[in-house]
Amino acid sequence: MWRGARNRPGENAPVGDEPSQEPRKRAVGRPRRIEADQIVAVARRILQEEGVEAVSMRRVAKEVGATPMALYHHVRDKDELLMLTLSGMAASIPRPVLPDDPRERIVTIALHTYTGISRFSWIVDVLSLGDLTDRSALWIPEQIIGAAVECGLSPTEAVHVYRTIWYVVYGALVFHRAEERRAAAPDRRPFMSSLVTEEDAGEFPHLAVVAGRWEEITGGYDIEGQLRGVVDGLLPTGGRTASPDA
């Protein structure tokens, strides 16, 4: 007889036996509700404490008390989650006082961007994904593009100026991040002096002169001075009239 079947009334039912009953199913509780802000906050904390490598959808899900699949209702993948961690970061850094002179304004904003991001090494790694998701940072390209237009460039040319400035700033940040990693391994050999020696002077005459002092020279890199040189090279002089924008 199948488990759970019942005898008909009067048919061989043992005296005193109660009809068998199906056991009640245990009510399943609702999964814990999670919010996108909670997911982003946990991912940001992991980034700050352990770096990009420590962030995974499984790790974040575990810390918010959910399943990895539940996270995909809020973010497409790990890359999108990492980019969302940038949201609001620009607003946490006070804006500088901007000069009236458009050239000085661009230099001031570029330096502000460099010094602000360099305080958060994990941001450099996240920015390598390429997209800008922090609305509170939009004042930076807005001001740089506007200043370039004031100097006589078309809007299209001004966008190119902004991108070039950003490439310089981001490149400096990447090298700054690399220097931090190298500083954590003081026993390492300086790479340039190990690659180029006096014997290589015939092939690399200029590098051979500076290879032995490469660490000292690069350590004294003046980001402000270099940015001024880049800005001077990008912007027209003498009140040039903006070219027609395509």
What's a quick, concise take on this entry?
By secondary structure, this protein is mostly helical. Helix content is 52%, strand content 0%. The longest helix has 29 residues, at 155-183.
Which secondary structure elements does this structure contain, and how are they paired or packed?
Blueprint: H1 36-50, H2 57-64, H3 68-71, H4 78-84, H5 102-118, H6 121-127, H7 139-150, H8 155-183, H9 191-195, H10 205-210, H11 214-219, H12 223-234
Mean pLDDT: 82
Q: Indicate the CATH class of the largest domain.
A: Mainly Alpha
Outline the low-pLDDT stretches.
1-11, 13-19, 25-31
> What's the structural domain tally?
2
Strands, total number: 0
Please name the fourth-level CATH homologous superfamily of the largest domain: Tetracycline Repressor, domain 2
Instruction: Label the structural class.
Output: mainly alpha
Q: What sort of overall outline do the alpha carbons produce when their principal axes are compared?
A: flat
